């Protein structure tokens, strides 16, 4: 062990390679592939219905992608602060850094970025993930072994079972219920898309409203955390509390979108049912060629005589039999 600029390198530096969730990348690529494969058929759709089908495909896939992605995002709630904090244990070194806490349904993401990034001849840019399948005790012990900076260890320790704040119980259970209701909303979304392609458009509107309802249930489940006594994170001379973030508001916007679609489909079904069926191509053939005029046609008399004679002879045979 040697002294290096007043920092004791007791453990090797092992930063997490987390930059962007691999699951989110997979979800985005899958839905982009679906969108591309469905949009390819648009040139084969004639008339004004081409724009309608494009909006329908894009909107539906957007809702589906959001419902799946919200389960794996890490910004349902977050908190940020800039402060002076002790960098590592057994050292008096103090760094100025931006500290961020990002909370998802399955874990937390803690970031630490120095101002400037390079201080004490070291790059201070950490991005650490802690998930709670059951608890985060094992991952917290691994962070201690890595010798991660004090601010990251302090925030992670708040989510352990032994901490009096009890954050692990609040966020773990509310996250589980929110995730379960989001997957239920995803199932309702699939059923709605199936029903839109059948002559039961009214029930498709109902399923879109059910999708919105389960999204709102997920938000309500996560919101129960804010009703519990909040645990204040104090680092250095500053402190912060977690507040709703991007994923929560994205869930709200998606729920409102599903509500609007469901209500409009239901209302229009009762007001103009025939036009709704025509718009969704349910039980209707294409009407674009109705007004096409054909030129004067001629019948082949010889062919018709042959058909008439053959039909009469077949009837006579049946009578004799």
Automatic annotation (TrEMBL):
Q: Would the keyword Transmembrane be found if you checked this record's keyword annotation?
A: yes
Which parts pass through the membrane? 20-41, 53-72, 177-196, 203-228, 248-272
Q: According to its record, what are the GO cellular component terms?
A: endoplasmic reticulum membrane
Superkingdom per UniProt: Eukaryota
What is one process in the GO biological process aspect for this record?
protein transport
Its membrane topology: Multi-pass membrane protein
Query: Which InterPro entries does the UniProt entry name for this protein?
Result: Dual_oxidase_maturation_fac
Q: What are the UniProt keywords, alphabetically?
A: Glycoprotein, Membrane, Transmembrane, Transmembrane helix
Where in the cell is the protein located?
Membrane
State where it is primarily located: membrane
Task: Report the sequence similarity comment from the record.
Answer: Belongs to the DUOXA family.
What is this protein's name? Answer: Dual oxidase 2
Which organism is this protein's natural source? Champsocephalus gunnari (Mackerel icefish)
């Amino acid at each position: 062990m040697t002294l290096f600029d007043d920092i004791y390198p007791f453990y090797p530096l092992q930063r997490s390679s987390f930059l962007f969730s691999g699951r989110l990348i997979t979800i985005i690529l899958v839905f982009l592939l679906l969108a591309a494969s469905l949009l390819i058929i648009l040139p084969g759709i004639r008339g004004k219905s081409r724009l309608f089908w494009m909006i329908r495909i894009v909107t539906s896939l957007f809702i589906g992608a959001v419902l799946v992605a919200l389960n794996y995002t890490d910004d349902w709630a977050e908190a940020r602060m800039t402060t002076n904090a002790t960098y590592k244990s057994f050292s008096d070194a103090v760094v100025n850094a931006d500290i961020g806490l990002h909370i998802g349904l399955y874990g937390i993401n803690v970031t630490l970025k120095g101002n400037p990034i390079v201080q004490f001849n070291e790059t201070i840019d950490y991005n650490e993930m802690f998930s709670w399948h059951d608890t985060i005790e094992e991952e917290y012990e691994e962070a201690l072994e890595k010798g991660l900076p004090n601010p990251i260890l302090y925030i992670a320790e708040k989510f352990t079972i032994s901490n009096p704040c009890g954050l692990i119980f609040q966020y773990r259970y509310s996250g589980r219920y929110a995730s379960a209701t989001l997957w239920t909303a995803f199932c309702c979304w699939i059923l709605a898309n199936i029903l839109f392609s059948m002559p039961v458009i009214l029930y498709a509107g109902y399923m879109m409203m059910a999708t919105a309802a389960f999204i709102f249930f997920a938000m309500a489940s996560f919101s129960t955390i804010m009703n519990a006594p909040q645990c204040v994170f104090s680092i250095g001379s500053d402190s912060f509390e977690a507040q709703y973030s991007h994923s929560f508001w994205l869930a709200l916007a998606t729920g409102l979108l599903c509500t609007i679609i469901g209500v409009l489909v239901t209302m229009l079904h009762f007001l103009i049912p025939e036009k709704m069926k025509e718009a969704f191509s349910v039980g209707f053939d294409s009407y674009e060629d109705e007004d096409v005029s054909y030129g004067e046609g001629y019948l082949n008399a010889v062919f018709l005589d042959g058909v008439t004679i053959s039909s009469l002879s077949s009837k006579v045979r049946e009578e004799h039999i």
